């Protein structure tokens, strides 16, 4: 078959999937840049999660090709620090993000460039606020996961709980899932349950007496979630890890 014939018969849905996958890789890369910058800025986990959510929400409405994703990510960091009352100086955000993105370049010293970036971020922040309808807050899974881990730790045999890094794994998974849009697609409680379920699954740990109980342990934490929903969230988390392999 000729190349022209192949081109004419190529499945349009396949092209759309390829384009979507390419965009997901870009978003993964930008959020990784944001996380690295956030660590250097000594941001805690909640503002970093809020920054990622602001970024993903913006590009759920706007087209990637219409905006500089690095500028959106940098502005999301600054905006999240205000939302979560962990204020950062704009100059620090600019300098750290610049050095994170341009590791092979000297630090930003030009006052003109610094002023231009400051103005660009100010305009970008207003744009983000307008796009998101001036509502930049979203309930996060962190407080639920903290509570669920404490409760589950009380149920579990202490020796099993202490020698198995379930807590560290759950927190790591929660941090990693913000590289994708799974953080926008489910309730905070459901994400926390799914992360904990996945962590237990990874180490082959079962909750004591769960098979004999009238209510599954995850239903105790969130009575409106099903095991099918949990597995769907886990699949989406695994898709995020698959993106990392493709970078």
TrEMBL record:
Residues 32-130, 143-239 form the Cyclin-like domain. It holds the Pfam family Cyclin_N. The keyword Protein biosynthesis does not apply. InterPro entries: Cyclin-like_dom, Cyclin-like_sf, Cyclin-Q_first_cyclin_box, Cyclin-Q_second_cyclin_box, Cyclin/Ssn8, Cyclin_N. GO terms for biological process: regulation of transcription by RNA polymerase II. The keyword Aminoacyl-tRNA synthetase does not apply. Residues 1-20 are annotated as: Disordered. It comes from the Eukaryota. Keywords: Cyclin. One of its GO terms (molecular function) is cyclin-dependent protein serine/threonine kinase regulator activity. Belongs to the cyclin family. Cyclin-like FAM58 subfamily. This is Cyclin-Q.
């Amino acid at each position: 078959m000729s190349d022209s014939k192949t081109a004419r018969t190529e499945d349009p849905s396949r092209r759309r999937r390829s384009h979507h996958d390419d965009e997901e890789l870009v978003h993964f890369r930008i959020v990784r840049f944001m996380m690295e910058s956030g660590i250097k800025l000594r941001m805690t986990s909640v503002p970093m999660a809020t920054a990622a959510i602001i970024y993903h929400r913006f590009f759920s409405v706007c087209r990637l090709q219409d905006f500089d994703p690095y500028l959106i990510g940098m502005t999301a960091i600054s905006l999240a620090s205000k939302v979560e009352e962990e204020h950062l100086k704009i100059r620090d955000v600019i300098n750290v993000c610049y050095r994170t993105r341009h590791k092979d370049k000297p630090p930003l010293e030009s006052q003109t460039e610094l002023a231009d970036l400051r103005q660009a971020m100010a305009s970008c922040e207003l744009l983000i606020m307008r796009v998101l309808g001036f509502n930049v807050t979203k309930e996060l899974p962190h407080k639920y996961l903290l509570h669920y881990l404490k409760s589950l730790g009380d149920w579990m045999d202490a020796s099993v709980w202490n020698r198995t890094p379930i807590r560290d794994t759950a927190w790591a998974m929660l941090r990693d899932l913000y590289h994708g849009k799974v953080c926008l697609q489910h309730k905070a409680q459901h994400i926390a349950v799914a992360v904990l379920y996945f962590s237990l699954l990874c180490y082959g740990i079962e909750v004591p007496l769960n098979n004999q109980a009238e209510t599954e342990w995850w239903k105790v934490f969130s009575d409106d979630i099903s095991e099918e929903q949990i597995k769907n969230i886990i699949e989406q988390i695994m898709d995020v890890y698959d993106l990392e392999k493709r970078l």
